[in-house]
Amino acid sequence: MIKMAWKRIFNRKMHSMAAILAMAGIFTIVPLGLYFAKESKLTVEETISQYGRGSYDILVRPAGARTSIEKKLGVVEENYVGDGSGGISIAEWEEIKKHRDIEIAAPVASLGYFAGNRTSVGLPLLEHPARFTWRFFTSDGLNKYPIGEPNVVTYFEGKPMEYVEYYAPRNSTVGFMGIRMPQNYYLLVAIDAESEGKLTGIDFSGLNRKIETGSQEYMIIQGLLEGRGNVPVIPVLKRSDLNIPLYLSLTVEELDISLSEYKKRFGVKPDEPIFAVDPELEQDLLEALNEEPALSRKQYDIDLSSFQGPFDGTYVELTNDFQVVKGEGGPLANDTAIYYTASKIQYDIGDDLIRVAKVKDEQPPLYKEVKQQGKSFLEDFDAPFMLWQMGTFTPLSKKDELTSSPLGIYSTEEVKTMDGTTLTPTISPGSFIAAPAAGVTTLEAARIIKGEKPIDAIRIRVAGIQSYNQEAQKKIEKVATDLLKKGYEVDIVAGSSFKKLDMDVEGIGRVTSPWTTLGVAQSLTSRWNTVTLTTTVLFALFGLLYLSSRLLYERNALSEENKILLTLGWQKNKISLRNRLEQQICLTMAFMIGILILFISPFNTNRSIYLAPFFLWLISLGFAWILLNRNSKPIPGGTAYKKWASIFYYRKLIIPIMLVLTFSVILIVIQAAVILSSILEARRTSLGAFTMDAAAFFHASALIITLLLTILSVSEAMNAILNERRAEFQMYHAIGWTRNTIRRHFGKEVSAWAGASMAAAGAMSLAILPLLNISIGWILASYSCALILFMILLTTMVCKKI
After folding, report:
1. pLDDT of the residue at 518
2. How far apart are CA 654 and CA 659, in angstroms?
3. In whole angstroms, what is the distance from residue 406 CA to residue 60 CA?
4. What is the spatial distance between Cα 154 and Cα 136, in angstroms, rounded to a whole number?
5. Which of 120, 131, 745, 766 is at 20 to 30 A from 258, Cα to Cα?
6. What is the DSSP letter of 58?
7. For the chain, what are the domain ranges?
8. Is the pTM of this model over 0.85?
9. 638: pLDDT confidence band, cut at 50, 70 and 90?
10. Start and end of every ABC3 transporter permease C-terminal domain (predicted)?
């Protein structure tokens, strides 16, 4: 019987070879599809394990600290404590630190925007009388905003190294020819030096520096505190690498004026300075000087930003060629006990865009409500404290990280306009861009300034975690749950990443802003687990369906031959045995070819790749035994049909291909929709984009395998039905039908049953994909692509084969 089965296979060598190669393709492509799905999942998990954890794991804030944009979009801004109002006490922080699973608990408290030292710019002494007109500007990186009104100073003739008389409005200059700089404000925050140092790697030891009794520094402090009682001194470490944008617009005009003539004209004695003019004539003198015609005029735009560090303004001078140099001495003033607090920005979250409106249309504009706090240290002897600089600190250089653990105080948000311009903070506390901390102080200082509950946030790193895997996630979630039960606002930032949000900012325009989006790693893992499970199930079911359809077709094709053998006296069980042996031989040959292809492929190092074809082969042998053990009913020849006679007549040949086509469309639609939507959703964050790039080969391979599998199966099934009806088409041609007429006739049949299959596939896809949280847009796009693909494939086959 085996010999007869081999003989029949050889006699039908072209048909048998096509069937064996098609099934070998199934035995090869299905395992490869499962392999690529599994490898993409492993790549995602490995990438997240390596890169999914930032500097800390949990962000703890007071109850009610979550903003509306955090609630609606699940994102946190980088400098989330810059405008905090506190809510956690030092005692509560100490209690949190004692949790056995917490390695680091680093608190931070925003204290407000404090004034820095206010100094001046020394003007040059030219060789001729001159009029200087100046105005300061600040910038947000896009626009420049004037600060105050323009000011003018005019000086008369004189000799180098001699005193030269000048005149300017009262309080507009300081010292000799010095332009008073505008007041700058810097964000001061409180930290715990030890835990913050462990968390960030920054050296904050200067906060605890001891000032030696009797030293010059000690004597200066005592002099400032004299007569004020026991006023607390707030130690401050200023940031060494931070500058505030400040610009000077200066117009220099050469004049032809005489000092003696002006003194005589305005009643000033020759031996008195010009500013001794009668107060009632001051405005007339100023107007007269401003109306003097200029012999020449030059405009200078001078950038002073690099000279103005936090809290410690630098006196600078302009040389005669108007270059900026550091000056010696110079006037200096500071009022450290007055500070400002700012509210959170109010984001108007629309359906398509986030909008930010100005709170006050000033120069520069304010986007936050600003309130003055404290008392003047210069004017009020009851001022509550005094700031004193203890040294500097330097943040570590920021790396291009995939995860986002927003420390809340060190970074300036990389907010950019549509043309790529980077926005910066202005000198105002109400700036749209949140300023990073310009200085740090102690928690005890925070309690003095802010009250008993000064802490805005605690950054927590969980102990005992080596890599960010599911076990680590569970441990972090447990600690977060414990803290949540105590009434805090708790966010898990481990596994978070950066996400860009589009905003429309009044006065600036459209911008993109990076925010921290929470739960990215968990979302990626969960989504790709879904993708892998879906892919595995679909490939396995498709392989089984294809083999079943192939065996059904063979059984139907053998029905006429079985009738002849029965007529010749063969027993039914002998006929069934011969048919089963033939198909089992073909299946085994296809299995061996598939195994050989997998063995020589570059993916043969993974031994599990051979399990899928082995199980498919065993199941297909079982199907062959069951299906070919039952005789198919012959196709009725005497029944008349009014419509679609050929479809009803050949229904037992058409139904298998309809099933293959239906499942092929479903496979492509689901695979394409799930994989592509997952990739694009993941690419909205930096971690997701990196992870998808790492797994891009496997994603692309899975899609390509899906396309090859469906094209192969539909083509083979279509070839089978065309071969079965070849004699019928030859008969049509013999009675006078043209090739185009036969194509149209058969094309209508194909359109009918293929259309029904694709409609069924579309309905089933619409039922399945929403359960996987796939949008209707992706479903329709994937379905349209599959529809076009199979329409082209079927049309091509009809045209070429007939």
Report:
1. 63
2. 9
3. 12
4. 18
5. 120
6. E
7. 2-49+522-801, 106-257+292-397+421-461
8. no
9. very low
10. 701-798
